[in-house]
Write a structure and sequence with these properties.
The protein is mainly α and about 130 residues long. Helices cover about 55% and strands about 10% of the residues.
């Protein structure tokens, strides 16, 4: 299922304040951080779905598009599977059914603590570069 990636790392508010004081393009840095987050997660999803690739439909439903969408001041990028495009099976694979054990590797590729930690680290790196480069 498609999840929405958020910006969330230690010190984020301070980085934003620094960017504002320096008159840097916060929107661009935000978009870069969200795109980098998606790029960090998506290869693990492809790896996690590989053992289940009978028809290829579920793997084809992985959201590879790193398009950032803005709603007012809120930016988001989708990661995971597009249910509308054949990703319904991903729910059963990640959470299990009465006859199928949940695939924790696939689940963790999106929602796991290691994945979240890598994403936070990547987001912080992008904001640091934004401060240094602009």
């Amino acid at each position: 299922m498609s999840a929405k990636m958020e910006l969330k790392f230690t010190g984020m508010n301070e980085y934003i304040r620094r960017l504002q004081r320096m008159d840097k393009d916060i929107k661009r840095v935000t978009e870069n951080a969200l795109k980098a987050s998606s790029a960090e997660i998506t290869p693990g999803i492809h790896k996690g779905i590989a053992p289940h690739n009978l028809t290829g439909a579920t793997e084809e439903s992985i959201v590879n598009d790193k398009k950032v969408e803005w709603t007012g001041e809120v930016a988001e990028v989708k990661v995971g599977f597009s249910i509308r495009d054949g990703g319904l099976a991903s729910i059963f694979l990640m959470y299990g059914t009465p006859t199928i054990e949940p695939d924790m590797e696939l689940y963790n590729s999106i929602y796991g603590s290691q994945t979240k930690s890598k994403v936070r680290k990547k987001q912080k790196e992008v904001f640091e570069k934004g401060i240094l480069r602009g």
